[in-house]
């Protein structure tokens, strides 16, 4: 067996089953800074989040990853910009299967999330999607196609329901000691 695959699996298991459940934010952040491909300043990952192959996940500055999220970097990358808020139990997927394949072949792609994107509770982002700067993905939405900047999408599959103010200037700052 390939040593890197084994080590990666052990890191994932250790974080997802033990460290990710610790109520000490600093311990989780310390581990993630060593395991993820990149983790920006001021980014907070709450308890119960699961990562698949942290070496392909890059989180920008001042991200808030709420409890219970799943971020899948198994084969392709996930890259978030700065000041991204990902709601509880959201899933970002990079790998699936081709439903037309007689061999159940893999199909996937990188997921790129721009600056100041807000992803709602239990939203699902499918492989190969780019979410433009300042966009909002409503709670429970399933994003199957790329989203233009400053667009609000909702539904299954997600469709444009509005536009977001382009004069965004906020910076997220959420770093609780316990959570």
Topology:
Layout: H1 3-17, H2 25-35, E1 38-39, E2 44-45, E3 50-52, E4 57-59, E5 64-65, E6 70-72, E7 78-80, E8 85-86, E9 91-92, E10 95-97, E11 106-108, E12 111-113, E13 118-119, E14 124-125, E15 130-131, E16 136-137, E17 142-143, E18 151-154, E19 159-163
Q: What characteristics describe this protein?
A:
179 residues, alpha/beta, seven-stranded mixed β-sheet, 2 helices, 19 strands
Summarize the structure in words.
With 179 residues, this protein is α/β, with parallel strands linked by helices. It is 15% helix and 28% strand. It contains two helices and 19 strands. The strands form four sheets. A seven-stranded mixed beta sheet has the order 2-5-8-13-16-18-19. The chain is globular. 35% of the residues are buried.
Structural class, from secondary structure content? alpha/beta
Strand line-up across the major sheet? 2-5-8-13-16-18-19
Number of helical stretches of at least 4 residues:
2
Q: Describe the biggest sheet?
A: 7 strands, mixed
Overall pLDDT:
95
| Relative strand content | 25-35%
Order of helices and strands: HHEEEEEEEEEEEEEEEEEEE
Uncertain stretches of 5 or more adjacent residues = none
How many runs of DSSP E, i.e. beta strands? 19
How large, in whole angstroms, is the Cα Rg?
Answer: 16 Å
Helix content: 10-25%
Any idea what the shape is?
globular
Question: Cα distance, first to last residue?
Answer: 37 Å
